[in-house]
Amino acid sequence: EAQVTQNPRYLITVTGKKLTVTCSQNMNHEYMSWYRQDPGLGLRQIYYSMNVEVTDKGDVPEGYKVSRKEKRNFPLILESPSPNQTSLYFCASTKTSGLSYNEQFFGPGTRLTVL
Amino acid sequence: AQTVTQSQPEMSVQEAETVTLSCTYDTSESDYYLFWYKQPPSRQMILVIRQEAYKQQNATENRFSVNFQKAAKSFSLKISDSQLGDAAMYFCAYRSGDTLAGSYQLTFGKGTKLSVIP
Hints:
heterodimer; A: mainly beta; seven-stranded mixed β-sheet; four-stranded antiparallel β-sheet; 50% strand; globular; B: 52% strand
């Protein structure tokens, strides 16, 4: 089954404790990205990657890191989480070749709480 | 930068009735895509409908249809024969058609929470 998976789905942590949220897709998509969703703000892009070893900032990158060492994986790293990073996080992926339009596939979301 | 505005934070509709959710956007591009996503309580993002800016015909998907007014930069979603399962948060989203720019970023509105009254 074609899908984007995220782990963990729920996480409660404390300020300053480094964490990683994993994202993996099995569709051989070139493009992957991370969004955060906050009440009243919709979804905002954190980082994106056009392909292996190619990453760039989205609209709200502060406090986050990413890496793209393999095509299928795009982990989101919070080196020193703070309470304002409490949010719902989505990973998404899409193909960039072929037709001009390719649907973006979203993961199931990760609910992160930073105390 | 593109912006997407959903002016209705919450709406409600009687079961079997029709409801329209509003969305406006701002862009200087001529080639782009517009989307409506549904987010039920499970939090999964579900694509409801897509509209290509170059197409004059409004997109339809079963009970869902859009009213795309390119000059007015308006993109409303009409849900006909509303069902209890339609209750969800709905997000309007924009994506540039210029893939050479290197970004497939979706720009989302703030969402409209739709309640369906039995």
